Amino acid sequence: MAASRLPPATLTLKQFLRRQQVLLLYRRILQAIRQVPNDSDRKYLKDWAREEFKRNKSATEEVRTRSWTLSG
To answer: Coiled-coil annotation: which residues (predicted)?
Structure first.
């Protein structure tokens, strides 16, 4: 059986598509935050979104990532 030519860190198609959904969600959240009129609220929300996505960066449970993407 021939060895795979893909590097070990290559995403599967399902992982790639999920990643695209999560990135789209992040962009939509940032776009919505730009509509917030108050500067301090906007900064708070932007920091919150950034930290939440960083905190969940290594999440591999499909249930966790799916709960973020299905609501939008």
So the answer is: none
